[in-house]
């Protein structure tokens, strides 16, 4: 399995720069996500790695090989796309066997037989060598499609088609698996199941995987590390927990999970505590900064709704409930504090009462949970 190292990748389309300063160091066996909003350059980065786009400048290495000058089929990358890109007139088995068989025919210099193979496929007369048959059936078992081997791919559900696409990529034993929004066409429930399937297979095979998504929950739940991209650049690379607890910019705080982001001014700093003025309120944080203008970041689950007078918090505020949204094991409240609107998540246990709109509450936040950027 290969590592993937990208240095100073840049891509211009007709003189317009859509990617710049892209540095990636993806370890062997790592599950790495490229995350960012539409148009930020995720797919272009992946297409440069796969060889479908040539970089304007920069280097790309897979394992020890500099792949910049290699054609896509020489890079040993498997690809899975959002659109599945399967052959609709072939059955599942033939779809998975196709590239493998072509590769074997080419290896044996049996170029003429490629045309014969394709014609036989069309008239459903193909007989595969035993090794190919075994390899394909093994991989189909792996993605739980053994019973569907003889079905046309057009007869399958979206999730099953995506598993065929995955099997077709994996059967080639690629060094790197590249997946571009593979779950976007699936409904929510299936997306969750497929996340687990992909993660299980990736961990079993320890295959280096680069996964493009605009869905932060998908990236957070699947990836070992994530690169957050915006406007053709990487803003931050980290584990899901790094990005969640130490976002380097307000954009990341907002894009990775939900955040309350409030502009404020530093008014004091002593004994390791920074005091920030937000409107007519003050808030204390353990973040040290030499800036005056800061963004105050507080995650919704780090704001506590206090019961009665138990407010030992260094940061305590009065607020008024605007809305309550019941989400099963949590209740999300929108709470007005001064001129600001805060999102607050509280755990919900059966029998708890849910606060109503207009109800006054006291809120507490510990300075350790207040981040300044
Ligand atoms: N072949 C091309 N010619 C010109 N511009 C392109 C081409 N391919 C991509 N772009 C532009 O490059 C930018 C990045 O596109 P890219 O598809 O990489 O973004 P993305 O983050 O994958 O977005 P999405 O999530 O919508 O697929 C966009 O502004 C896009 O319009």
TrEMBL record:
SUPFAM superfamilies for the chain: MOP-like (SSF50331), P-loop containing nucleoside triphosphate hydrolases (SSF52540)
Pfam families in the record: ABC_tran, TOBE_2
InterPro entries given in the database record: AAA+_ATPase, ABC_SmlMolc_Importer, ABC_transporter-like_ATP-bd, ABC_transporter-like_CS, Mo/tungstate-bd_C_term_dom, NA-bd_OB-fold, P-loop_NTPase, Transp-assoc_OB_typ2
MF-aspect GO terms: ABC-type transporter activity; ATP binding; ATP hydrolysis activity
GO CC terms, sorted: ATP-binding cassette (ABC) transporter complex
Source organism superkingdom: Bacteria
Domain ABC transporter: 4-256
UniProt keyword terms in alphabetical order: ATP-binding, Nucleotide-binding, Transport
UniProt protein name: Polyamine ABC transporter ATP-binding protein
Organism of this sequence: Ornithinibacillus bavariensis
């Amino acid at each position: 399995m290969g590592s993937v190292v990208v240095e100073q990748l840049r891509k211009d389309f007709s003189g317009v720069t859509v990617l710049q300063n892209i540095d990636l160091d993806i370890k062997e066996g790592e599950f790495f996500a490229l995350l960012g909003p539409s148009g930020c350059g995720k797919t272009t980065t992946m297409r440069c790695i796969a060889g479908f786009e040539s970089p304007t400048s920069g280097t790309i290495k897979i394992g020890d090989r500099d792949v910049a000058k290699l054609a896509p089929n020489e890079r040993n990358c498997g690809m899975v796309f959002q659109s599945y890109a399967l052959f609709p007139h072939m059955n599942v088995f033939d779809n998975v066997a196709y590239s493998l068989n072509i590769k074997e025919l080419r290896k044996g210099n049996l170029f003429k037989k490629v045309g014969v193979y394709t014609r036989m496929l069309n008239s459903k007369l193909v007989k595969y060598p035993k090794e190919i048959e075994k390899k394909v059936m093994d991989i189909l078992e792996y993605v739980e499609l053994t019973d569907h081997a003889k079905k046309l791919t057009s007869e399958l559900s979206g999730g099953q088609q995506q598993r065929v696409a995955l099997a077709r990529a994996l059967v080639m034993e690629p060094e790197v698996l590249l997946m571009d929004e593979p779950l976007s066409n699936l409904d929510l429930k299936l997306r969750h199941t497929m996340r687990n399937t992909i993660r299980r297979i990736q961990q079993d095979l320890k295959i280096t995987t680069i996964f493009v998504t605009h869905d932060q929950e998908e990236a957070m739940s699947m990836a070992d590390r994530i690169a957050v991209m915006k406007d053709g650049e990487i803003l931050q690379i980290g584990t899901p927990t790094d990005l969640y607890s130490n976002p380097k910019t307000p954009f990341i705080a907002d894009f990775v999970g939900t955040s309350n982001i409030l502009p404020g001014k530093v008014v004091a700093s002593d004994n390791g505590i920074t005091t920030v003025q937000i409107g007519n309120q003050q808030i204390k944080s353990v973040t040290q900064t030499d800036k005056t203008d800061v963004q105050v970041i507080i995650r919704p689950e780090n704001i506590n709704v206090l019961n009665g007078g138990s407010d030992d918090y260094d940061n305590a505020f009065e607020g008024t409930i605007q809305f309550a949204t019941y989400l099963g094991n949590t209740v999300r409240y929108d709470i007005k504090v001064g001129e600001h609107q805060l999102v607050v998540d509280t755990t919900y246990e059966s029998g708890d009462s849910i606060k109503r709109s207009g109800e006054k509450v006291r809120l507490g936040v510990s300075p350790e949970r207040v981040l300044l950027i």
